[in-house]
Structures
1.
Amino acid sequence: MLTLSLTAARGQYPFDGPTILTEDQGLSNSFVTAVDQDQDGFTWIGTASGVNRFDGREVRSFNQSDEPSNAHQDLVFDVFCDKAGHTWMSSIGGLFVFQPQHEKFRPFPYRNRDYLEGVWFYQFYQDRSGKTWVAANKGGIWQADLGKDTLYRHPLKPDGDFTEEERSRTNSVFAVAQDVRQDSILWLGTHNGLVRYNTRTNRCRLYRIEGPYADQNPYRNHFRSLYCHEDGKIYIAAQQFMAVFDPAAETFHKIQDLKSAPGPRYTSFCRYADDKLWLTYELGLIVYNTATGKVERAFVNSPDDNRFYGADLKDSAGRLWVRSPVGLFLYRPLAQQIKSYQHDATSHVDYGYLITDIVESRDQRTLFICESQGEGIFAFDRETEQWSVIVAPPAAMKNRPFLGQGMTRLRNGRILVLESYSLFELNENNRKLVRLPLASALPPGAEMVEILEDRRGNIWISTRRDGLLRVDPQTWRAVLYKGIFDIEGFDKRHELIFGLKEDRLGQVWMSASPGLSIYRPDQDDFIQIVKTPFAQGDPKELFYTCFATDGRGNVWAASADWGICMFDPGAPEKGVLEWYDDENGLPTFPLGMAVDRTGNIWMSGNKGLVRFDPQAGAFNEYGVSYGYSPKSQGYIRELPSGLIAIGVNKGFSLFDPASLQLNREIPVPYFTSVKVFDREVGARDSTWHYGDLNLSYRQNFFSFEFSAIAYDLPESVQFAYKLEGVDKDWVQAGNRRYASYTNIPGGDYTFRVRAANSEGLWHETPAALHIRITTPWWRTWWFFALLGLGLAGVITGIYRFRIGQFKKQHQLKTEYEKQLANVKMDALRSQINPHFIFNCLNSIDYYIIKNESQKASEYLNQFSRLIRLILQNSSANSVTLKDELEALQLYMQMESLRLNNRSDYLPKDEKGTNRE
């Protein structure tokens, strides 16, 4: 049995599939020196040339300063996010604090910084009262008061007799930690040992490692990192070893030597679990059990393989952040759910090692792996994570490679191993392969493909073009079914039989290319379905690759043409009853299928791992971000332990289907940019201040760019936005991260953007930006009011003017009519002489008195007729000669009567006169 090394497994430790941030992803420098997270969720990253902010997808560098020296572009010692929401940064140039409203760092303190010349600040620390302490290379321990913009120096004067050099080294502080029991006590790791400092009395005491060990180590008292454990002990990382200090006994105890490395020393402690304390240093990781007092595991970095281990920061979601000289390593628990293990054997064929089957040992500690080519069967110890090879008997192999095709554990516990041309039994106690006498049951050169044991104890072995073999394992007598798969119109290539699967009725399903065949044990015959009937539509000629039985006993078959198809094992001739493809939810074409204990079907494909709930018809996809290996080859099987194994090139992946979690991180949306007419405005611009955007009516074309803080599947974050007052509903933007608007009228608006993770879980509180657009003067209310008043005045003026015109016209008309009446009266008076009227009336009166009534009546008739003619002629524009002569004749007749016929008249006109 040969032993191989492990190349890609970290056991229970979460060091698979890291995300690595380097200069290629936007860091100002790949040499990462510090990392911390603020209250909003942003990750701040210090590098050898500046500080960066990371949201899970994008990196923003803050490497511009208003200071002439551009100090904070230099080597960053530490970044720190305090409880009040402030972000601090220390570099060779001094201390800096981030100003969110200006999106830049400013020096701290802002004024009177001359006394800080030559002071390098190594580490920030905030105690339980909220005070911020800073360790520096000289001056003792420093306290930063942001409210007063002041940095206070607390020199260290330890009790005892020390030389000036020793006191100077004591005031060079690397690390700070508060005592877990006394708030007034700070423990300081210095260049000269461990200092116990009382912040109330300013008294301090120095503890040093003395003795023979100290004489052999020149860096014995360079204490670079501290951790105060709840048991009161102080854990120390010195430059070349890890130790623990007991304050009660005032003694040091060395825990682990740390290999030295050239260059700066970066160390940090992380409380990974209740009894697990991790020490990250520049060469790797130490896992220390505080309960047992033992080192459980030591990881050594491998820069050549780009592997760095540690926990410089463990965030609230359990993600581990590890700084390194080649970038920032991010280990996400979501990506640790599917573990991958690979051996380092060398492949002798182009396609490498293909996993064909995996069997679990009785104690579930060892996995036996059958691969497509090699020297035998691989064995993997899950506790030690070591690989070994169980070599096939050379006499059986005859100088050819072992071509593994499959394995099965029989109901009696025996393990059978199928090789292309031989059948073996694996003895898991002595780890040996024994050849079984099966070759005589097959034609010479027959190539075997798959092996299956049914519930009756029969062993089924499929072949390539040589039929199907049923074997009795007690007698090893075999029955060969050959020729029954001959299909008219198909050559012998269709006789490749694979996908053996037993259903709940004991029937054995298999793919016969094309179509499928089903062995019915009660009838001892086969049902052949070349063209598969569909519940809806015509029969189709399908090629099936694998089969699975769900919790209800239905058989599901994977087809390259129609996705996954469901059959009723009691009536397979009815064909496909349900099917799913890429049009109704199937995320990827399945290369293999396995069923877990709850009846869910797990499918491995080229795009990821898929969980299918047959009852709900729901799919969930787990891609590379969940730990799924892109080297997966399609093999998938549930093990007796309940775990599911997936075959990958030269190894396998393993996961627990009961604990596999979907992404539950809710992305937090925020704005990255606001542009007006494609000109970016920021916090330093008066148009955008503390979440408000004030624009003039001329600036009515603006756009927003936004993102979200999300570290799990950030590329799958979905966005929706709405400009309240313009958009009636949310605009679904997908993964688009910008929105633009134009010709927006004046008024108050609110632009909101929300984000959802890969599973469609939305953040409850959208990011909001309030926008005020001024209204042009011709659209303001007062303008419309003035316009209305002016219009009303104009209408009133016009009305009054017209009324005046009407009155004037009426007055003129009245005057005219009056004058006309006067004229008519004058004309009438001119025609009716009053003297004549009086004479007529006297004549009438005379006739009445004389009782000459006939003459009085005649005279009165003539008088009334004359008056009527005069009135009639007075209203006419012209009077004919005839009418004038008639009136004249009546007048003369009346005058003749008055004169007792003593006068006479003779009208005469010129010849040819027209009286009409």
Note: The helical segments are 164-170, 212-216, 394-397, 781-831, 834-849, 853-874, 881-898.
2.
Amino acid sequence: MRKPILSLMILFCLCAMADNHIRRIDLSGTWLFALDREATIGPSDSLTETIQLPGTTDTNKKGYPIVKKDESTHLSRLYTYQGRAWYKRIIEIPDNWRGLPIHLFLERTKPSEVYIDSKFIGSSNDISTPQVFDLSAVLTPGKHELTIMIDNGSGVPQQLYASSHAYTEDTQTNWNGIIGKIEMRTDSLEHNTTPEVHPNFRNFHIEKQHFYANGHKIFLRGKHDACVWPLTGHVAMDVESWHDYLSTCAAYGLNHIRFHSWCPPEAAFVAADDLGIILQPELPFWGDFNASDTILMQFLHKEGENILRTYGHHPSFRMFALGNELWGSIDKMAEFVNDFRKIAPDKLYTFGSNYYLGYQGVKAGMDYFTTCRVGGEGWGNYNTHTRGSFSFADADDGGIINHFYPNTQMNFEEGCARAFPENSSQVFAIPVISHETAQFQTYPCYDEIKKYTGVLYPYNMEIFRSKLEKAGMLDQADDFHKASGLWSLQLYKQDIEMDLRTKNMAGFQLLDLQDYPGQGSAYVGILDAFMDSKGLCTEREWRQWCAPVVPLFITDRFCFTTENGIHARIQVANYSGESLDGKTLHWELTGPGITESGEMKLFSTEGLFDVGKLDINLYHLNIPTQLQLLLCIDDTEYYGVPYHNTYNLWVYPDNNNLKKLQRKVIVTDVLTAQIARQLEKGKNVLLMPGTSDLTIGGLFQTDYWNYRMFKTISENNKKMVSPGTLGILTDPLHPLFKSFPTEMHTNWQWFPVIKNSHPMILANTSKIYRPIVQVIDNIERNHKLGLVFEFQVGKGKLLICMADLNKASAYPEGRAFYSSLLEYMTSRDFAPKTHITLDDFLRLITTPVVEGKIGELNNISPY
């Protein structure tokens, strides 16, 4: 119980409070202040400015106002400052504190020096935990001058400034100030690293390749957290903000957060304890774990000890990693883990999230392995992978999802089965968590700009918007955002379900549910940087495939034929800790001309298990049709609705009139002089040109993470550069699609066409010209790209398709697209609105386009 302490007078109306053991003086409020970039101020000097604490120089508009507004790799600080800053105020110690231990408590800050009455007391460079200074020997009842110097320009190993999310300008920013609680306390400095008992985390442990809690197998559905707080530029320190943040994560089905190269404050652990979310903090490091760098090793070891001793009692703190994508001394990593295990033996440890980019495999001392691959592989092999997407610098063709014919049976069992500790007698492989899963880009929503009312401003977004406007496509920005986002949503579903289909996988850590506004500006989230919806899906829709129980449709394709029908298996991934024995899985297939349904009985099994086979005849469907399959487990409830999942499927008649249609138009890959004359005289021509300097490659998925960074890395490593596109944009009501059902965006039925495509740069067309099927370019390049487009040339009509439809026709959906396109060309609907001369068309497809320079952007991890 708390009660006021009487007879306490403190300057500035400070409030003193006490509980059963600890008395506190709150030091928040107005402080005297001075910047000291040249290090010329001392503790006895007078300070003339004022500042509000808790806060930072940014939140108080101290420092240097922004001048250059051309930063496109991350958000911009409106006021920047790096160096020493002085903070000073008068404190008054009450008489009844005489003889008590007195400590200064700074909940979170940067390297500091503390002075009482101009006398040096001590310094600290604890950045992951509170800084606590023992003032018992120098404080007596009465008034004293407290002076604190904070330095955000030195005091920690240099490697942290560009890498750790405790410092980097890409997200949190390198602020100067003191945030959270600022107090004088009469407490001891004891730490408890033993977790408190909590029903959500009881008996958290590992059995074989899975995590268990409360006696049940669980699956970690996690996200990466990079300390993105756009309004303050620093981490929130209050429980309410963290409760809101983590509640949003939980509403999207997540039960786990990985903190990339930083450790959250007390408030995060308190909120996670309440919500039952498992946290994995990390040492504040991303780089070379260099055993010979004594300063770095001592600093990181100290930070690890502090984190474990300060937050180890929280039941949500179950896992700990040594940093992000480390390389360097594996022996030193093992030594750190052994030391930390002595301090907090209840925690589960790994050397680092995706250490050595997974190539070194599992080592003795790891409890679990967070990675994108397990060991090395030959280029072009995918059997070590533990996620579905990669950059073109990391994996041939950008990984499994972009490379292989779409299906719902691919998984990572082979990679996870390799997770045995090297040179160990251990019988079982250890748990594998998919590292930074997904990373599918979405074109940004420029309406978000107005939300930046705090210390950071998105000049990067303004730059990208200006580039789009210059290219004449600003009116399409919202459609680009929607089309790329809805396609990325399907890609996220696929990547997550690949993890759930893997019986020996233990979890995933998404990158990300939330946009990452730095490192080149990576708009990979389903939510924006503020954790607000982008309007791409509801929480309920997302939870179809991200929940404790997920029904799964297992088959080798999304596109079927009327002759063969649908042949699939149904599985359920059950990590709810609850029995499904005796419950019923209801399935329903619906679409134009079809409604089929059925039931399957479930039995009590945890983890991934088979339910039954699904065989459906489709012979009565005589036109191309899009269907939806619903799987629903009756008599269950999660956020008020039963566990369910849906799939878009397509069916095509086996016989179409493709050959007949081909004879009605001129089909060519080269516009010869003879064909050009026929075109001008009134013939309909389908032109499927080859590649040229005006074409780019065909990318099925949306580009991975950030085009600028991985373009740099690929070029430096002599690897193929990703085409860098973000899916298609089209009008599903266009008559070209009468026999090829589609949405406005890419979906699985487009794979044969897009993988055999090479979109053309249409910069030589007028700014108002729009292709029928447009390919969305990335934010750096902003090309107008055409996959299918048309012109009236003389008396004839010309349709250009930048895909090899003969190769695409190896698949039923490819044949359907080809037929639908030809049906359009032989109908009255084929009436191009844009008239062009033959000479102008030839210039359009041959005149070089001058591209703007895209700057280099390197990653910290070595490639």
Note: Confidence is low (pLDDT under 50) at residues 1-20.
3.
Amino acid sequence: MGSEEPSTWDAVFDDEVVKVTSRREIKQRVRENLVGLAFSGGGIRSATFGLGVLEGLKPFGLLKKIDYLSTVSGGGYIGAWLSANCKRAAERKAAPEKAPADPADKAAYERASVDWLDKSANWRDSIAHLRRYSNYLSPQVGFFSADTWSMAAIWIRNTLLVQLTVILAIAVALLLPRPLSAIFQEWPHVGDWRWITVVLFVLAVAGIAGNQLRLNRDVDVPFLHSTSWAAGLAATMICAGAAVGLGVRFDFHPFTDGPIDWKVAAPIALLLVLIGFCLLPAAVKLMSKIWPGDDPPKQINYTQGWVQGGVVVPMMATCYLVAAILWGQTVGMYSSGELAKLDSFGGFFTNAWRYWPLPLSVTFASLWLLSFCSIRSGRDTKGLLAAFFAPVPAVAVLHALLCAIMLLLHGWAKQPDEGEWLAFVWAPAMVLFAFSLSIVMLIGIMGRQSTEGVREWWSRLGAWLGIYGFAWMLIAVAAVYGPQWAATLLDSDTWKGSVIGGWLATTLAGLLAGKSNSTGGGPKSAKSEKTTAGKLLNLVATVGPFVFIAGLLIGISTCLHLIILSISDQNWSGIGDLHWKHWEYMNDSHVMMVLAVMGATFVCLLLLAARVDINEFSLNAFYRSRLSRCYLGATRFLSGERSPQKFTGFDEKDDLRMANLGGKDNQPPAGPLHIVNCALNLGGSSDLALHTRHSASFTLTPYAAGSSYPSKDPSGARKPEPLGYQPTAAYGSADGQPTLAQAISVSGAAASPNMGYHTSPVVAFLLTVFNVRLGWWFPNPKESGIKSPSPWFSLRYLVKELFGGADDKSNYLMISDGGHFENLAAYELIRRRCRVIIISDAECDPELKFEGLGSLIRMCEVDLGARITLDVGPIRPDPESDRSSLRCAVGQIDYGDGIPDDGVLIYLKATMTGHEDSAVLQYKASHPDFPHESTGDQFYGENQFESYRRLGREVAGSTFGSVNCNQDFVTVAGDLLKNFPPPSAARRLRTSSRGA
């Protein structure tokens, strides 16, 4: 990408108007009289119906009067065909010297040089190519067809590479608990290194305190500013000197694990907590020096990421290390071993505090600090009293819960083989739970003297602690218990087949159900939700991914266990051995051997993540090349223009760069300015405005690529800034810029782990692992320094796909099917305030619920302030005949904001009136779902292709044949509007319409 800063949408639109004006015959008031044609999503069904619409408009001379061509998903197929034909016809006209010498070929060349939008242009040969390749994914279908086997081979190859990367990443995570278990056993013996536990806890508490203090003050707290770093360091030195002096004076050694004098531990603990708090301004100052952006932080204000890194992770590490110390005290690892002799809760509760004065004092001092930081005002007397006493019951609860944990650990210590693994897996989570309950008690005692903002802050922190705690449990349980469970399940040959077969069947069913229109993987209908089959599909789509994830974790853990056993000195025989001697094998695993396996796995993971391109090894390349062969190959229909590779049948020259659709050297573009609509996936964004959509509009045109989505600063310190746009010719570097086929393949990437408002994290995991990935990671247009079209290291982005966590903050953005945002391709035309908009709607809508139209109306009013008034009543089928009265509707667009002239919306719908020609009626009789056959059917035969094409041609022809089209398009639209009076309130399709 070039070095220039991203352009704003206003600048992009101004440039577009200049380009549009250059090809207009009438150049006055162009901005106020823009005309746009939109083709909806719907795969090849929409493309073929759209082809008919184009043919229906052509005889009236209307195509040359269209300024914008906006396409989404399947509509992009035929839009690319039109744009490329316009471009190539213009190139032929500009180069008559390239005409063949043969008279017949020369005549054909001249005919193909006519303006593609002209009435006299001959489209027959180009359409013949489309018809031949209507089965565009696999032109020759059959068991012994090379096309079919190529599809399977490409998917298997790419899936294996992606799966290997995912499996290696999971393997590293599952190997991690083994060396951590060794640290768990050794940590009680490390002496003064155990101060690390205190330091981690104090740093986490200091971060919480600083954020809560700032949250509760209407004005800035000077001490929390980076400018106070010198005062903070001075206070830190004073507190540190006092703490060291006390420790030396009283010979304080807190890690001997004998009884400790609390009168020394308490003041030292208080000084340690104050040290952490006093370091905050210095920490902010340090961060401002190394901050990568132009707006470094000036005071503490943690975002979601900083809370995780500065609070959650240190707190999790503290719980893990505290659990290790408790286990060591329970089993009597020390010379005194007094706590190991206790065997009742009462004994622990009355005696254990003598061994824990430092940790309990640190906790008490921390809760004290947090209480004072959470009160509404320093002048609130009741608040000060509550803050003073609130830590007492909170620490009492913590002490009681730690004693209960000790009692449980005491029981586990009697199991010599399994006990230490039980403590390792479960004790850290129990310590985290104990601390969380003490915080609950603190919040309860503070009551009204605290603020709702502080309570909300604690709730969000509790959520992240729960997420991290669950992740720890998931990984630890799978790593430790997985091999034993697998051995139990697979001990019998009959049972083995049932388990593996059931797992595979459930996984496959979940994968297919996750893509079904009856589940979260596609648009839902009331009918599909109410039927037994629909409910079953939803159940399978919900359960299947969890079954697969559980089986995958157990399977990888078992394989790792077998690898470690095979390269070690341990002898094992058979699956039964893995069950009965599991704990013996786990205890005898050599740490260095585990680290060697982990290191080798990690190196392989780095290699694959760096070399396997996350974009090129998705299914997009397969999809793109076949779209190019069909729809762009059809634009090179003259003899000798195409030279497909003799073995594969593909010609790379079919495709052309998106930027080449624009006119060169300030020449006007050959056809309407093509807007390819995609979805910017934001399932991982914290923007609450996206809680339903999970996406925003992202467009590719010959001139600019990007989005006007306002990227929000997580800290809230800055105003939202649009992502912006980059010149298409330099987007992703000059060599990696988008091509037309790439643009329409991404716009039509319906099957993707991140699917806008259809995104489901569990389904995303399944789709990623099985490489059902048609989306593309484009460079973030806001980051102008990115010079590669794809991420050089794919692991981070693969993880985002696995969990449906794409957002707008990373260097690359997940872009997928524009239908995941808006499926009629009219949103961007309404953003441009087009005076006339024609929508060709051939999305799958068998019940004529107009879901895409309703969504468009709602979003345009919310986002753009434009209100659409449209009566679709005559399009709805009659209950008795199941036929529509009309196949089109004409309505108005009220743009508001002082614009005097309303826009006109001409809506063409793929539906039947019963007056179609005989060929279409015959196909309908044989195929009752026509014209709303499943979008999953992308393999069209000649009859199917011709039926949709004829229907589109009839719908457009009958609509525009009713008015005089030898006028400017605005007048034509006005005449059409007269034939469609404004709807009554009862039949008006607005945001609240049930039909939407």
Note: The chain is about 50% helix and 5% strand.
